[in-house]
Fold each of these.
Amino acid sequence: MGKTVLIVDDEKNIVDILSFNLIREGYDILCAYDGREGLELALQKNPDLILLDIMLPYMDGFEVCREFRKKNNLTPIIMLTAREEEEDKIFGLELGADDYIAKPFSIRELLARVKTNIRRSASAEAAPREGSSTLSFGELTIDTDSKNVFKNGKPLELSLREYELLTFLASNPGTVFSREELLEKVWNYKYYGDLRAVDVAVKRLREKVETRPSEPEYIMTRRGAGYYFNNSFK
């Protein structure tokens, strides 16, 4: 059975273009033309990826993303926006969207983003779980088989992207990675231009992992260079 993409957009011509190209690539398609219907379909049908417009009737894309993430932390969400304001892009990422792409967009680029995000999600779900493999740092424990993270024995609610970012940094303690390197190694494709996605992901991750996010113990910043995981834990 093919992977299913849910398209939520109130512009029929956009939905038709996306549907045509995604079907041609072998995807099954679900369509919704307002936020309320989009949220219902997302929760009922459990698609493999959601293409979510921001400007929607009844519920905007931000609200749909927020409500969906309360129920589901794994399904990739790519937000579609005609807005160029930086605040809109960052706000969507802070709510839990995995990516965004601005209209008018290149179909080739959008298809590449869809493919990469679905592959990443499917790979995470299909990962083998032989025995138990853990990374332990102070109060933090990462179970790389079950893909769960614990702090003082209590599970943390991380999105798949946040888990992957944390695990990548923790697997290379002390190594500083630039934002460009993290986009390539964790996001699995290169962004052209805006690198704030990494900053937002780090901010969200610190809010869940750190006792005092403004004074991090685990995920550190090397000014002018990038981010690294504190290697002082034994």
Note: Residues 126-131 have pLDDT under 50 and may be disordered.
Amino acid sequence: MIETVQSAARDAKTGLQEFAHAQGLEPPAYRVVATEGPDHAMTFTVEVDLSGQPAQRGKARSKRAAEHAAAALMLSQAREGQHG
């Protein structure tokens, strides 16, 4: 089960990219909006923007993980918007 969750998190950026492409949107844009903590234990907050959707933020111990967290939130939000 943990592997499934980790795999889903790793695939969130790809899934969001594919979703944007399928909808004819510009690719999602990621940016670091905050860093906290000492160098050896830094935490990153990354924001992702996708046309037509409110920005989403992810927070993690690496930029990459924070991007994936933000992408997962954005993908979930965008898919719900299609069905709602």
Note: The beta strands are 29-36, 43-50, 53-60.
Amino acid sequence: HHLLVSGIVSAAGGRVSNCLAHPSVRTAQHDRVAKEFKDSLEWCLQHLNGEFRNVLKSAYDACAPTKYAKAPFETIFNEVAALLRHSAVRVYVMNGNSPIPSEYYEKGFNIICGGNTLGRGVTFPALHTIYYTRTSKKPQADTMWQHSRMFGYDRDPGMMSLFIDSNLYNLFANLNATNNSLIAQVEAGVQNIKVYYDQGISPTRAN
């Protein structure tokens, strides 16, 4: 998906397309996932005119950009092929052990793998592809809200893809519903405002 989006952006004269992976708080997982992305890019290059082309065509047919022009498939394929051949899609690890400056992802075609650092005051331009699989035994609402900042801005909704499991999806949906309830109470002038979370979700750390 990220390669398709990068091809569409590049063909339209865009300067940046980002993909984000948040698998875990453990740095070893960040390195592992980064290697898997690099291996996948190498597979795409090796199967450029075979299986990869068919996969890219299926993704192209399902994609409906609203901000970027959708060039003909052959144009997009050639853009993606050039990105792969020139190793223009870069993979970075971003965590406490490997901080990277914003200059790395403010332009170009990037895949960033990391942990909590991704959600602390960081936003990513043109973030269209997200893999969010980080789980917690005791989820905290404030942490989940903080992580929501990693979802970026200035995106094309027709090219957006979020890969997340059902439990995490439900968690974010419940937190969003709670937030909407809080806003509604304030707008209605309720004096004794109440906030309820699903069982197992804490508003903050115990301390």
Note: The longest helix spans residues 166-187.
Amino acid sequence: MKDPLNKTTCNCIRAIATICIILIHTNNEFFKGTGQLFTGIFFFYSGYGLYISVKNKTHYLNGFIQNRIIKIYLPFVLTNILIYSVLRFILDSLKDENFFTDVFGINSINPYGWYVWTIIFLYAIF
């Protein structure tokens, strides 16, 4: 029997979970209340993929933290720059703004910033 947890299957399940998470954030009634389920599925299959990669590739962890953090944190900072710019210059809704803490995610101007910090934390533990 073919391995039910092969890379292709895991990537397909992660893709489906990702799409469902995106739909949850659009306030789609059909997916209401399923955010924790699909996030858990996504984290499980991502963690399993990391485990298999570490197990099968000798030097997989060389530069792991730096590479993963850059792939996660850089888009987060760029997104925060966009959010900051819209809130500050277009909507004029930032009071007591601090560019550094807002853009680098120390202050929470991005409502989904918790997710980035959670992934960084989990990578650090891994």
Note: The mean pLDDT is 85.
